[in-house]
Specification:
The chain is of the alpha+beta class and 182 residues long. The protein has one domain (12-168): Alpha-Beta Complex (Peptide Deformylase), CATH 3.90.45. It has helices at residues 26-41, 128-141, 152-167, 171-179; strands spanning 46-48, 58-61, 73-83, 87-92, 102-107, 109-115, 121-127. It is globular. Bound molecules: ligand GNR and nickel (II) ion.
Length: 182
């Protein structure tokens, strides 16, 4: 069990396009386990590798509310193969944009493929909050944040608040964020 520091926006490392994983190694399995620990601790319902400074196409998701009935997903190289015409509005937050929220509209249902921790290809369909969360995480792999889906006015307001928030963080906390292995 290890908790990883989560990068807070604005940060150039959250804007990078992540690279596909060619082989699942023990190191990556440990990373994915640490990402789930970090996500549950936060707490959050998803986490993407670039948020912990790793520029690889890896996400973890668990949208269940009850700790006893966890349904964690660890996805490598996720790809959306189909999205519904029907859309869903959801009030989104992001662990890299602490205390900031905005309504984002996305396809309500998606089909996707990904590689699991054993290197096996999986195909699933997701809807509702699970579909929203997976799309939010996959955006991170392209360097896209939920604020990139809202008006410039709202985005600039949120970024301004985050700059203030970061400016008042204790120096040791910022040091840790600067040193995460990107
Ligand atoms: O914890 C999170 N909650 C959330 C709520 C609505 C839509 C997306 C999310 S994902 C977010 C965790 C996070 O930042 N993942 O990248
Ligand atoms: Ni996020």
């Amino acid at each position: 069990m290890a908790l990883l520091p989560i990068i807070v926006a604005p940060d150039p490392r959250l804007k990078l396009k992540c690279e596909a994983v060619s082989e699942v190694t023990d190191e990556l399995r440990t990373l994915m386990d640490d990402m789930l620990d970090t996500m549950y601790d936060a707490p959050g319902i998803g986490l993407a590798a670039p948020q912990v400074g790793v520029t690889k196409r890896i996400i973890v998701v668990d949208v269940t509310k009850n700790d006893n009935e966890r349904q964690p997903y660890q996805m490598i190289n996720p790809e959306i193969t189909w999205s519904s015409e029907e859309l869903l509005d959801y009030e989104e937050g992001c662990l890299s944009l602490p205390d900031q929220y905005a309504q984002v509209t996305r396809p309500e249902k998606i089909q996707l493929t990904y590689m699991d921790r054993d290197g096996k290809t999986k195909k699933i369909e997701a809807n509702g909050i699970l579909a929203t969360c997976i799309q939010h995480e996959m955006d991170h792999l392209e360097g896209i944040l939920f604020v990139d889906h809202i008006s410039k006015l709202r985005r600039d307001l949120i970024i301004r608040k985050l700059k203030k928030y970061k400016a008042q963080l204790p120096p040791d906390r910022l040091d840790k964020l600067d040193k995460v292995d990107a």
